[in-house]
């Protein structure tokens, strides 16, 4: 599961856990990107902070891992490079499920080398409030797995805004991540 994870929240964690159980996955690897290929307007937190928050959020789940694969690669973080590296690392003996939320998958056409990427792994698109997977091309609907999950209207953008405006973010993300945000004065 790739992401900016700025910060990681229960929307990510719940989606990952649902995918793990539904598709009987051996493990979930969270892959924070170094530099998102799709730039967001405001600055993103430095990769080390986002990586550490992802570690804090996942360390109590034995099936969850965090990879630094994209943090070590310079330039924009392209998923295709990551997937290829994983295939090589595991000697072609694995099947990769690429977990995304509806919003991310709806933009798949704009991803770098998306045609090649969707052939290399099994895409999973989790439902997400505000994004309609029915809009997807029939072609994509046939090859991806759509995963219906209870709607969690949590986003990193909303969490950053809440911190900036002094509103509580408790229960939207793990407490350890919340503490990290305040201790390091992120999003202020
Ligand atoms: P931002 O608001 O900064 O874009 P985000 O909450 O969308 O942050 P990302 O790091 O962009 O988080 O998302 C990583 C992946 O997790 C994407 O595939 C995204 O679609 C998915 N995702 C994030 N939040 C949810 C959610 N609440 N439900 C389902 N999928 C989610
Ligand atoms: Mg996003």
Automatic annotation (TrEMBL):
<dbReference type="InterPro" id="IPR005248">
    <property type="entry name" value="NadD/NMNAT"/>
</dbReference>
<keyword id="KW-0520">NAD</keyword>
<keyword id="KW-0067">ATP-binding</keyword>
<comment type="similarity">
    <text>Belongs to the NadD family.</text>
</comment>
<comment type="function">
    <text>Catalyzes the reversible adenylation of nicotinate mononucleotide (NaMN) to nicotinic acid adenine dinucleotide (NaAD).</text>
</comment>
<feature type="domain" description="Cytidyltransferase-like">
    <location>
        <begin position="2"/>
        <end position="162"/>
    </location>
</feature>
<dbReference type="GO" id="GO:0005524">
    <property type="term" value="F:ATP binding"/>
</dbReference>
<dbReference type="GO" id="GO:0009435">
    <property type="term" value="P:NAD+ biosynthetic process"/>
</dbReference>
<dbReference type="InterPro" id="IPR004821">
    <property type="entry name" value="Cyt_trans-like"/>
</dbReference>
<keyword id="KW-0547">Nucleotide-binding</keyword>
<dbReference type="Pfam" id="PF01467">
    <property type="entry name" value="CTP_transf_like"/>
</dbReference>
<protein>
    <recommendedName>
        <fullName>Probable nicotinate-nucleotide adenylyltransferase</fullName>
        <ecNumber>2.7.7.18</ecNumber>
    </recommendedName>
</protein>
<keyword id="KW-0808">Transferase</keyword>
<dbReference type="GO" id="GO:0004515">
    <property type="term" value="F:nicotinate-nucleotide adenylyltransferase activity"/>
</dbReference>
<keyword id="KW-0548">Nucleotidyltransferase</keyword>
<keyword id="KW-0662">Pyridine nucleotide biosynthesis</keyword>
<comment type="pathway">
    <text>Cofactor biosynthesis; NAD(+) biosynthesis; deamido-NAD(+) from nicotinate D-ribonucleotide: step 1/1.</text>
</comment>
<dbReference type="InterPro" id="IPR014729">
    <property type="entry name" value="Rossmann-like_a/b/a_fold"/>
</dbReference>
């Amino acid at each position: 599961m790739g992401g900016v994870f700025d910060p990681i929240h229960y929307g990510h964690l719940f989606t990952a856990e649902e995918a793990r159980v539904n598709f009987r996955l051996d493990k979930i690897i969270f892959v924070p990107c170094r530099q998102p290929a799709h730039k967001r307007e405001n600055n993103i937190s430095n990769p080390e902070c986002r990586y550490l928050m992802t570690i804090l959020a996942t360390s109590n789940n034995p099936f969850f891992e965090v990879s630094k694969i994209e943090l070590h690669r310079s330039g924009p973080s392209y998923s295709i490079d990551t997937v290829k590296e994983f295939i090589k690392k595991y000697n072609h003996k694995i099947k990769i499920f690429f977990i995304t939320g509806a919003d991310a998958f709806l933009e798949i056409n704009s991803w770098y080398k998306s045609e090649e990427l969707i052939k290399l792994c099994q895409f999973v698109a989790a439902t997400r409030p505000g994004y309609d997977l029915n809009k997807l091309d029939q072609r994509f609907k046939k090859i991806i797995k759509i995963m219906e999950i209870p709607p969690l209207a949590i986003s990193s953008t909303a969490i950053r805004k809440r911190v900036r405006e002094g509103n509580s973010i408790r229960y939207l993300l793990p407490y350890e991540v919340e503490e990290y945000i305040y201790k390091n004065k992120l999003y202020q």
